[in-house]
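Quick one - inputs below.
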Amino acid sequence: MTGYIVRRLLLAIPVMLGIVFVVFALVRLIPGDPCRAALGERATDEICEPYLERRGLNEPIPVQFVYYLRELLHGDLGDSYRQGRPITQLLVERLPVTLQLSLFALLFAVAVGIPLGIVSANWHNSGVDVATMIVANIGVSMPVFWLGLMLQYLFAILLKDTPLRLPPSGALQPGIIIPPLYQTYGWHVSGAGKTILDFLSNMHALNALLSHNSKGLGDALRHLILPAVALGTIPMAIIARMTRSSLLEVLGLDYIRTARSKGLAEWAVIMRHGLRNAMLPVVTIIGLQFGILLAGAVLTETIFNLSGVGRALYEAITARDYRVVEGFTLVIAVLFVAVNLIVDLSYAYLDPRVRLQ
Amino acid sequence: MTTDHAIPPAEVAVFDEAFQRRPSSLWRDAFRHLFRKRSAIVGMVMLGLLVFVALFHTVLATHDPNIPMLDVPAEVAAGVKKRTPPCIHLLGCPEDQPQHILGTDGNLRDFYSRMVYGAQWSLIIGFTTVGFAIVLGTLGGAVAGYAGGWVDNLIMRVMDVILAFPSLILAIAIVTVLGPGLINALLAIGFVSIPVYARIVRASVLSVKEAEYVTADRALGVSYSRILFHRILPNALTPLIVAGTLGIATAILDAAALSFLGLGAQPPMAEWGSMLGAERNQVFTSPHLVFFPGIAIMLTVLSFNLLGDGLRDALDPRLNQ
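Output:
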C-alpha cells in the first residue's frame, strides 16, 4: 500500500506542475500587461511602469515563471489588483463558504441518491424504477443556474405564506451575526491559529454549532437548503444511476442467490450482502462529483448571493482582476486533483486488486 | 486456381442461401436495438422536434426575435407592455390584448419567437464544439497511439493536465483570456473536451496497431494515412459516436452556463442561456422569462442524453447477446 501511495503521489507532481503552468500561461496570454488590462483606459505609463518593475513583470516570461513558482512554494498567491489584499486572505474568507455549500450539496446528493438507487434496483423494471430513472435523467440534464432560480421562485414567492418558505439568497438573515469562534470564547490568538479559526468561523453553520448559537444555526441552515439542493441535484442523479446499476449487477451474482436460499430476510440480503459490495464504484463516483460541485459553485453562488470562491471568481472576471482569476482557478484545480487523488487511494485501500495492477 | 473436388450441388445451395440472406451489419443491428429501447425513442422524437423547430424557425416565429415592438408599425405594437405574461387568445386571454404565446421580454420582444430562434443555436453549439473536439482529439490520439514513446507521453500528459481542471472552470478561464463572445466560448468548451476523444482514439489505435491485418498493410507498403483512416479509425467509430452524443449534451449545458454568466453569446442574440441570464433578476416578477429558456435547454440536453445512453447500449456488442 505504501508503495502505491508513493507512486500515485509522484505521478501527481507533473500534473500539478502542468496545472500551474497552464494557469500561469493563460493569464500571460491576455493581450497587454496586467496593469493595462486591469485599468483599461485609465492606465498610464506613470502608474504602470513602476508597478510592473516592482512586480518583476518586465522580466522575460521564463524568469517570471520561476518567480511565480517561488512565490507559490512560499504559499503566496499574490495580491488582488482591485482590493490590494493578498489572495490567500481572500481565500480564507471565501473558500469556507464554498466548502460548506459543497459539503451540504454532497450530503443531499448522497442522502437522496443512494436510497433512490437502492429502491429502483430492488424493484427493477417496476413503475418506481422507471419513475426514478426519469427523475435521474432529468436531473443530469438540468442547468444548475435554472434550477437555482426556479427553487428561489418556488420557495420565496409561491410558498411565501406557508411554513415552507425559505430565504432565496444570502448566507444569513440581516441582523443575525455569528461572531468568530475566538471572540465567542474570548481566546487570544494570532498568526496561523487565527487564520485557521477564521477559516472555520466562516463556515457559518459549523461556527454556530461550535458556539452553541441555535438561532444562528437554524438561520444558516435555512439559507443553505436551496443552494445545496440546486448544486446537489446533478450529483444526486448520477449517484442514483450508479447505485442502481452497480447494485443490479451484484444482485445477479451467485452468492446473493446463496444468501437468499439460506432464508435471509430480503432487506438483509440487499443491505448487508448486496449494497456493501455494490458501494465501491459508487464511492468513486461520489468523490468525482467534487469537480462538478466546484464548477457548479460558480453558478450557484452567483445566483444565491453567497460570497464563496465561485462568486469571487466570477466577480474577478467581470472586474478583470486577473491575479484573482489566476489564484482561484489554481486553487480550484489543485483541490480537484487532490480530491481525485484521495478517491484513487481510498479505492486502492478498499479494493486490493487496484494496488497490484 | 483449380479445385480437385467438385462441390456437391446441395452444399452450393446452402452457400447460395447464406449469401442471399440480408447481411446483418453492425449498424443495422444497432438501429434495431436502438428502436427497441423506449427511452432512446423518446430522445429521438424530442431531438426530431428540436431539429424541426431549428429548420423552420422563420416559419414558426410570429414576430422578429430581435426588433423591439417600439420599432414596428403602431397597430402591431399597440398595447404591448414589457415582460407581460403569456397571452393566448384561444385559452381565454382577452381579445383586446395582443397575443404573445410566451409573453414579452424586458425589451418588448416576442418571447416565443426568440425561443424558436434559439433552437438552432443550441444545435449549432452542440455540434460545432463536439465536432471540433473530435477532430482535434482524433488527431492527437491517433498520433499519440501510433507514434508511441515520448510523443505519446507528451501528448497524453498534456491531456491529463486539461482533464485535471473541472471543465467549466477551465472553459471560464479560457474565455476570460480570449474575451467574451459565442465563438470564444465554443472554442473554450471544444478545447476542454478534446482529451475525452483523444483517449478513446488512442486506446483503439493501441488495440489494433499490432493486429495482423495492419501488419499486412504495412508490409504491402500502404500509406500511414490510409492505414489510419481505413483500418484503425473504423474501430474507434462506435465509442466516438457514443461519447460524442453524450458530449453534445454536456457542451450545450456548459455553453448555456457561459452565456448565462455573460461570457458566451451576447445580447441581442436569441440564445437560451443568454436570454435566461439577461432576465434572471426578474425571476420573482416575470418567472416565465426564466422558466421557458431553462426548460428548453433541459429538454435539448435530455434528448441527447437519452439518445447517447441508447446508442451506448445498442452499439456495445457485449450487451446485445
